[in-house]
Amino acid sequence: MAKSVNKVILLGNVGKDPEIRSTAGGTMVANFTLATSDRQKDAQGNWQDRTEWHNLVAFTRTAEIIRDYVKKGSKLYVEGKIQTRSWDDKESGQKKYRTEIIVNDLSLLSGRDEGSSGGYSSRAASSSSSTASFDQRPPATQDTYAQSAEISDDDIPF
Q: Per the domain annotation, does 88 fall within a domain?
């Protein structure tokens, strides 16, 4: 069988506050939408913005991070995979479909003043487990960088 790839990379803004729930087995699930935009010229030569809405789903630790740090308007970088679910509608009996992005990697890009704690990154090993790191140190000042960049003769290897 030939190799195949199912990878999605998105950079956009959260459309509304995420919905958080738990499965019967206790797994936390976050559902939210992400808007991406594209700019194209129309037939008259005018630039038109086109917004695409994506349905995203995150599980376990990544869902907890989304619950704690993501809200409407947050800017996110997301890596994941496309998955389409189907089910029979209870009212009409028709088959329904929903295409979603399963989040594997998430980086919060909004600053603190934008309602999110920027700089957070989470990488999920799979949809059932993930690891995360969060740098809680205050932002370094220019003086801190200057002190750490000082080089003495002992630092030169020759």
A: yes
Where are the strands (E) in 5-135, listed by range? 8-14, 19-22, 28-41, 47-59, 75-88, 95-108, 121-124, 130-133
Q: What is the pTM of this model?
A: 0.66
Rounded CA gap, 8 and 60, in Å?
Answer: 20
Taking CA atoms, 29 is separated from 18, 20, 24, 67, 138, in Å, by: 10, 6, 11, 9, 30
What's the domain range around 25?
A: 8-37+48-141
**For the chain, which residues score pLDDT lower than 70?**
111-158
157 within a domain of the structure (yes/no): no
Total domains in the fold of the chain? 1
